[in-house]
Every structure is written in C-alpha cells, then in structure tokens.
Design a protein that fits this description.
alpha/beta, six-stranded mixed β-sheet, 25 helices, 14 strands
C-alpha cells in the first residue's frame, strides 16, 4: 500500500470544481437549448427548461424536487410526535406494577395504605409522575423505572434544544445534572450579556466554550453563530409542540418540571427559549405540521424531524429557482446530500457546472432590449449539429453520392479522405503509398502491395460563386402542423454549409407570412410563431429577386419551403391583401415573379410540406415555369432535401 510522502497529505477536493474531472460536454446541452429556442422559447427559458429536465446522465431540478417532496411526505406519513409521552407512560406503568407486586405479600397497614395511594393517583401521566415525586418506593425495580422517567425527561428536554444531547447523557449522575444546570445558567447569562452589548463579549464567549464546549459539537466561532444554531433548534422544538394537541402540550409542560428530578432544569430551558425567540424573531416559531404515522418520535427526534421538514422546504425553494437572481450555486449541497443522499449532490454540482459553463463559454449575449439570445458561436454549434445530422441521413441513402463529393470537379482544398465507391477525385498518391507501407509493416513486412483500403483521394470543392435565397413559410400552419422546428434546423444547416464549405456564396434568408422579410440567422432562430393569416409568396419572391440582382455574377439558386398555396400578395402601396381561397390576382402576381426569376436564370425548387392538392397543383406550375422542381419530403427529411437540392443546383 502506497503512502503519501512525508509532509504531504491527501484528501477530498473542496476548492471549487474538481480539476481532474472531465470537461463538461456542452454540445448535447446546447442542442437541447437550440431545439427549445427554435421551437419558440426564449434562450433564458430554454436554459431553465434544460436544468429542470436534466441531461442524459444527470437528473434535473424537477426530479430532485420530486424526491424532496416525497421525502417530506414520508416523514409525516411514517411518524407521530407522542413518543416521549408513550415512553413515560410505559415506564410509569412498569414502575407501578413492580411496586404493587412488592406490596402484595406484605399484610401490614402501611402496605395497604401505600396501595391506596397508588390506586388514587391522577389518571394523567404528568400528574401521576408529580404525585410520586415524594413516594417511598419499596420495589427497587419500581424506583429504578421512576428514576428512568426523570432521566428520560431531562435528556429529551435537552435533546430537543441541543442536538445529540440524549446520546451524550446516556447515564446521568447528580454531578451530571449539576453540570447541565451550570451550563444552562452560564448560557443564559452569556445571552443576556450579548443582548446588553457588553464590550468583552468575545472573552466571555471564549470562556464559556472553554468550560462547556463539550455540549456544542458544532463548534460555533462566536456568539452569533451559537445563537443561530440554538435558535434554529429551539424553533424546531416549538414547531413540534405546535404540532401536538393541547392536551399533549400540557402534559409535556408539567412533565418538564420533573426533568432529572430538578425543576431548575425546566426553568432554565424555558428562560433559554424566551431569550432565543427574542433574539431571533425571524425564525419560524408559529407553524406546525401534521404527523399521521405509527412510528413514535421522542422530543429530540421530533425536533430533528421538524428541522428536516424546514430544510426540505428550503431545498424545494432553492430547486424551484423561482426567485429573482436565482442561481444553482444557491442550492445548499450539504443539506441536499443529508436529505437525498450523495447522488443528489453529484447531480446538483453537475447542473451547476453546466449552467456556469454555458454562461461563461459565450453562448448567450444580451440583446438591445435586455433579453438573452444565442451568440454567433452558439449558432455555429447548432448549425454544425444540424448539418451533421443531415449528412448522416444522406449517407444512409443507398445509391446516392455523399455530400462531401459535391465539389469533385473543383479545386483541391488541401485535404484528403479515404476513397469510397463512386468517387471520381484524383488519388492523393503520397498518402495512399504511405498507408500501404504502414499497413504492410503492421502485418509483419513483406512486399508492399496496394489495397483498396489504402487509397485516399484529393478533396476538392467548387470555387464558382452562387447567390442563394432560402424562402421559408412562417404562417401559423407551419407551427400548428409541427413544421416550425424542422424549418429552422434546415436554415441552420444550409447556413453552416455555406459559411464553411462555400464561403463565397451569398445566402439570404427570407421569411414570409402575411408579409415577407429578409432576416439574419439569429432572428430566424429566435422567431416565435404568431397567429396571422396569409402566405405571401409574392413578396418573398420579390425579395429573392432583389437579392439575386445584387449578385449578377453569381449562379442564382432559389429554394422555397411552404405548406400552403399563396393567399396574399403585395399591392403597389406596400400593403398586403389577403383572401382565401386565393384570388386570381394573387396567383398571377406570384407567377409573374417566378417568370422574372426564370429570365434571370434562376430555377425555383419548391419543398412542399403536406398533401393539399391545390398546393400541389400550384407548386407544379411554379416548377414548370421556372425550370425548377418540386420535392415533397417528410418533415424529418426536409433538411436533407434542401441541402441535396442546393448542392445539385450548384453543381449544375
């Protein structure tokens, strides 16, 4: 077994995140946030939703909150608060039975008189215990049981105010009782001095802890910490009393005078409670809880149960993150682990690190109106994911070329890749030979022979320039029919492809509902669905033509995604006129813009979503008049269809 070098020690890391832990993978989290944002949520609410739901390997705030409420309900369903009263009653009955057994064989009048005294005891437990305080016990067993009652009451009363006191005083002598009484007297005197604001309070506190520190395992550093700890426990004890019936509270108040057989203990505790309540009025001294189980709790255990309930309530509020300025760092991890176990602490730390990394990695920025929005860096990551998904789906189609081969007839990019069936690019000879040599050497040497697996080809891409207009329908039907998110992911993927592989191309994103508008990618990604009538393809085609005319030297590419026939057009004064079914004027103006685009050499590819026969007939007409084509993909295949058509049109 290895040991640490002399002068060194090893222990758990407590200074922030574990420096040896693997870095947080933000890609999955960003994808989740991106989907929420593109579906209409704000970046802030998307982040909050991710934290509530959690990730694949980390439970979210909602699950931890559910466990908190389950734990809280379990405490109340399982327990009851009259455990001390039941135990005192049991000991009293056993003491009386033992005493009567000792008296029965004795024929004397004194024995009969003692029996009469026992038979005349009040029915209440507390009153009976008080009446027996001066009783001359004949039975040693009975006397011992009665002494156990006094010790039990003393230890329970102390345990309700000082956590762990019941275990620390398993057996109590008269010296122990005096020591406890002196500690309580000194404590009350210290609190009085603190309330008066004496100058030497720190010296008095140090002296108090030197004499009585054994009673305070939490080791407070000053009077305020001592008061905080004592007040929290005393308030929990008071809430426990509030949760009992009036009869039970009266019984306990009377029994308190019998604690350790010394009424001074009860008096000192009552004085301590009054001082703490005056010094910490902000503690919860008035609420109560309903316990309906069968497992009885003593006073100390009941106070602990009330503290647990209060801690669970605080955790529920922290996990809800519903107050202004809420952050995951607010969660009390020690309390969370106490109540739900170490696994909950691990999940909370992971979520906190995820939130911190998402904010610190520059994935969010403030918009001019003060709201959060995704930064270009975040949009690039979302675009990479969207494009990767589309490329993966295209690879799965048999009989088709991979999208990486789109520029096979162009100029070398400086990179190479393994040859695959259907590639027509020239070989990268040096890397092909190198692969063959390495493969031969790894298998034991011999003559070097080329294998298909060794071949690498030169990666190329077209350098011709294109002006691309992507027209996306943003009418309400796109939202209601579940086409909103795929539409945005398609725009993201196309934007990512053009900005990384075809940087010379000019892409314009155009949305059209009642009106059309040229938008930037962040605006489209954050666009929310709005109820409005109208599918103004005429206005969108006008803007597309304007974009193409700004780039006369580029190959024109027009891609339109829609799920409805044109129901609006733009009038000369700039107003949109809507009618359903479409007016002939709307159809004529829309087709006239298609004809203008065709004269510029632009064919219009229409991606038809849905099976409306009127829409199908109209988009077929657009394709015939512009020399374009109609694609009717499934919603999940929209991105692949648009990317494939863009590459096909660009190659042509």
């Amino acid at each position: 077994m290895s040991t640490a070098p002399e002068g060194w020690s090893y222990g758990p890391w407590h200074e922030g995140p574990d420096p040896l832990a693997p870095p947080i993978d933000l890609r999955e989290a960003l994808d989740e946030i991106g989907r929420e944002v593109m579906d209409g949520a704000s970046p802030r609410s998307a982040l909050e939703e991710l934290l509530r739901r959690g990730t694949r390997n980390t439970r979210g705030l909602d699950e931890m909150t559910r466990r908190v409420w389950q734990r809280r309900a379990e405490i109340q369903r399982r327990h009851r608060l009259d455990g001390t009263l039941q135990e005192v009653r049991r000991l009293l009955d056993e003491a009386l039975d033992a005493e009567k057994r000792a008296l029965f064989p004795d024929p004397s009048d004194d024995a009969r008189f003692a029996e009469a005294q026992l038979d005349a005891l009040p029915p209440g437990t507390a009153a009976a215990v008080r009446e027996l305080s001066e009783y001359p016990w004949r039975s040693e067993e009975g006397r011992d049981k009665y002494d156990q009652i006094r010790d039990l009451l003393g230890r329970e009363m102390l345990d309700a105010r000082f956590e762990g006191m019941k275990q620390a005083l398993q057996s109590t002598s008269q010296e122990d009782v005096e020591r406890v009484h002196q500690m309580l007297a000194d404590l009350n005197a210290l609190l009085d001095a603190h309330a008066r604001g004496v100058d030497d309070i720190d010296e008095r506190f140090d002296e108090f802890m030197r004499r009585h520190g054994e009673f305070f395992p939490e080791n407070p550093r000053d009077v305020d910490e001592l008061v905080d700890a004592l007040a929290a426990r005393a308030a929990a004890a008071q809430r426990m009393l509030n949760s009992m019936s009036a009869e039970q509270r009266a019984e306990l108040a009377e029994l308190a005078q019998q604690a350790f057989g010394d009424p001074r203990i009860g008096q000192q505790l009552a004085g301590l409670d009054a001082r703490l309540q005056a010094m910490r009025p902000g503690e919860d001294w008035t609420s109560s809880a309903r316990f309906r189980g069968q497992d009885p709790l003593g006073l100390g255990e009941g106070a602990q149960a009330m503290q647990d309930l209060a801690e669970l309530d605080a955790l529920a509020e922290q996990l809800a993150q519903s107050y202004p300025g809420a952050r995951l760092e607010d969660i009390d991890l020690e309390a969370l682990e106490r109540q739900l176990g170490p696994d909950a602490g691990v999940d909370a730390r992971r979520l906190s690190e995820l939130e911190r990394e998402l904010r610190s990695q520059g994935l969010f920025e403030r918009a001019p109106d003060g709201s959060l929005r995704l930064t270009p860096k975040a949009l690039r990551r979302l675009g990479e994911t969207a494009l990767s998904d589309i490329v993966h789906s295209l690879r799965g189609k048999t009989g088709e070329r991979q999208t990486e081969s789109a520029g096979a007839a162009g100029e070398p990019t400086g990179a190479s890749r393994p040859w695959q069936f259907g590639d027509r690019e020239p070989w990268e000879v040096s890397r092909t030979v190198r692969n063959a040599v390495l493969r031969t050497a790894s298998t034991g040497g011999g003559a070097v022979r080329l294998d298909v697996s060794d071949v690498e080809v030169v990666e190329t891409e077209l350098r011709s320039r294109a002006a691309v207009a992507l027209l996306v329908d943003t009418s309400w039907s796109m939202v209601s029919e579940g086409r909103w998110l795929p539409m945005k992911r398609t725009a993201l993927a196309l934007h990512q492809l053009i900005s990384t592989r075809f940087r010379n191309d000019a892409l314009q994103l155009i949305t059209f509902g009642r009106y059309a508008a040229s938008v930037e990618l962040p605006e489209l990604v954050g666009l929310e669905g709005v109820w409005e009538q109208g599918t103004n393809a005429h206005h969108a085609l006008l803007l597309a033509g304007r974009h193409l005319r700004r780039h006369p030297d580029a190959q024109p590419v027009v891609l339109m995604v829609t799920d409805g026939e044109p129901t609006a057009h733009l009038e000369p004064d700039g107003t949109a006129e809507f009618d359903y079914p479409p007016q002939p004027r709307t159809l004529v103006k829309t087709l006239s813009e298609v004809d203008r685009l065709a004269k510029m050499g632009a064919s219009v590819s229409v991606f038809r979503l849905g099976d409306d026969p009127r829409l199908a007939a109209f988009v077929d007409l657009i394709a015939r008049r512009s020399g374009g084509r109609v694609v009717a993909p499934e919603v999940d295949g929209l991105g692949a269809a648009v990317i494939s058509d863009y590459l096909r049109t660009r190659r042509r």
